[in-house]
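Figure 6 in text form: structure in, sequence out.
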């Protein structure tokens, strides 16, 4: 199972690497911001089965990344777990409106995240073979320069 982590906190990415890195069936790819995450998603050599996105990241936030993922035929159905320190109703509702698969408020029990990763990994859908827009088109993520 290939998992993409997009979070600007190195400690959080390291925690997930430590928790999941020993499982030979899991391949982790980390991104420190939304633009780097989109770069990984745009790589036609990679296919992700689950995304774990933070909302509050520098430059481009996780909502913009999630919106872009949902508009891409290749990843429209990618299960995305939002892990954020924001626990206000508006943020959680916006995540749902953008079709986040699950929302976890930081800090949370690692077992809850691992359970959701396993659940979504078992329900994997085939990834569409559609090509992503070329890099010469508009900014890959709304709000990016």
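Output sequence:
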């Amino acid at each position: 199972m290939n998992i993409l982590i997009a979070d600007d906190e190195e400690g959080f990415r390291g925690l997930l690497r430590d928790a999941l890195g020993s499982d030979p069936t899991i391949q982790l790819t980390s991104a420190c911001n939304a633009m780097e995450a989109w770069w990984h998603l745009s790589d036609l050599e990679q296919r992700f089965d689950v995304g774990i996105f933070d909302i509050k990241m520098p430059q481009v936030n996780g909502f913009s990344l999630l919106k872009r993922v949902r508009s891409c035929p290749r990843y429209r159905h990618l299960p995305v777990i939002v892990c954020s320190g924001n626990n206000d109703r508006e943020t959680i509702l916006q995540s749902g409106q953008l079709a986040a698969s699950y929302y976890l408020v930081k800090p949370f029990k690692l077992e809850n995240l691992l359970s959701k990763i396993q659940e979504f990994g078992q329900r994997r859908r085939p990834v569409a073979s559609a090509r992503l827009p070329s890099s010469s088109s508009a900014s890959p993520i709304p709000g990016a320069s």
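Caption detail: The chain has one domain: 2-122.
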